[in-house]
Amino acid sequence: MRHATAQQPIRRPQEAASIRPATVQALTFQAGGQTLLDGLDLALDRTSTTVIMGPNGAGKSLLLRLLHGLLTPSSGAVRWNGRAPDRAVRRRQAMVFQKPVLLRRSVLGNVTYALKVQGVARGARRTRAQAALADAGLAALARRPARVLSGGEQQRLALARAWATRPEVLFLDEPTANLDPAGAHVVERMVAEIKDRGTKIVLTTHDLGQARRLGDEVVFLHRGRLVERSPAQSFFDQPQSEQARAFLSGDLVL
Amino acid sequence: MENFASAFLAAFELIVGFDPELVEIVGLSLQVSLTAVLCAGVIGLPIGAALGVARFPGRQAVIVVLNALMGLPPVVAGLMIYLLLSRAGPLGELGLLFTPTAMVIAQTVLVTPIVAALTRQTVEDLHAEYAEQFRSLSVGPVRATATLLWDGRYSLFTGLLAGFGRAIAEVGAVIIVGGNINHVTRVMTTTIALETSKGNLELALGLGIILIALAVLVNAAVMSLRGLSAQATV
Lengths: 254, 234
Prior knowledge:
The complex is a heterodimer.
Chain A: H1 3-6, E1 22-31, E2 34-44, E3 50-53, H2 60-68, E4 75-80, H3 87-90, E5 93-96, H4 107-117, H5 122-135, H6 151-164, E6 169-173, H7 181-196, E7 200-204, H8 208-214, E8 217-222, E9 225-231, H9 232-237, H10 242-253
Parallel strand pairs in A: 3-7, 3-8, 5-6, 6-7
Antiparallel strand pairs in A: 1-2, 1-4, 8-9
Chain B: H1 2-16, H2 20-53, H3 59-69, H4 74-85, H5 100-137, H6 141-151, H7 153-169, H8 172-178, H9 188-198, H10 201-232
Helix pairs in contact in B: 1-10, 2-5, 2-7, 3-5, 4-5, 4-8, 5-6, 5-7, 5-8, 7-10, 9-10
Membrane topology (chain A): Peripheral membrane protein
Subcellular location (chain A): Cell membrane
Keywords (chain A): ATP-binding, Cell membrane, Membrane, Nucleotide-binding, Transport
């Protein structure tokens, strides 16, 4: 991200107290007679970056959606500083989906739309959107229809749109799964800078290198259960659980 | 055969010479059908959008009925409006029968299901894609619906054009409620029917050529809109 906005402090809505930290209690999610997440207990602190890892089908994306309040748990609870993730809480979070959902309008229009929904005054929307696009290196594409952008540009736009709303918490579902190394690098740099400005990041990834580079802690899921939770360094150096060891070595072999 | 060729020639002369009678008839046709499409849009877009977004018991049945109404025979629509507007009918007091307004009402009844059904499909498909993002951004239902309508604008305009194509080409409804009165309710299709039966082929053919040209124009517009939406926004 460019320096112009890098110094700018994050402006939080004044009304309410922070929605961080979060606690997850006995979180269970069932669908179609199957238990997809089974009794998760977890505490998420205010600032460190949490990486959710695990094999396919472990429930990573599901956990993100439950944390963000896109889905309602079958039992158990998610609490953001004591509050369930209702509309007001979700407004202070943002999520970037694995396949970014872009509106059929211009690149700039996608960002101003999110700001409009957040109730940002008309005059401020444009300036803020353009700053976010500049941070994402998309300023030159502001007038383009969003849906003709390349995959990497689309992911950066989704990230810029999320960042423009100044979320306290940002969820990323495999943010670089479909990108080439250069594209992934740019996205990682953006994520690191968003974190540096005080946003709590929760992301899922299959990329061990990315987890090392971005993560402060790792939450490892296996078949819907929380198997291990460690600081990133020790997770990679000395995984405590059998499953994590198998996962790490298997991935390294590949 | 010679007769046929000379009729064609005369028809072209009517068109090129902006024959006043022909111009009047084409003008009324456009006025009636465009107004009907406008009304159908005002009614059909919100209904279609609501059906595309909302989930309620009996929704599937409503959609089946709506899709079936797309094929409503114009004469039946005309008959229904005739019964409503005739002296003895519930709206007879208004004295609308055999006026252009009655024709607009009848064509609105024909076009609204087309607009609503195509809107429903467009909005539902878009909503499937946008739903999670809407929830993530905490977009309320009213704004979500407005967003879906705007983002589906190219497809929705295609639906309106399809509705216009149906309205401008139908004869059954307007002849029943309009009565094909000279200088009052004569439109292209009703004139063609009348003049052909009278043996006055020039005017009938001239109007037929204009109708076909309109159909080509509408389809060209639909195609170029599809192209636009495909490259810029899909």
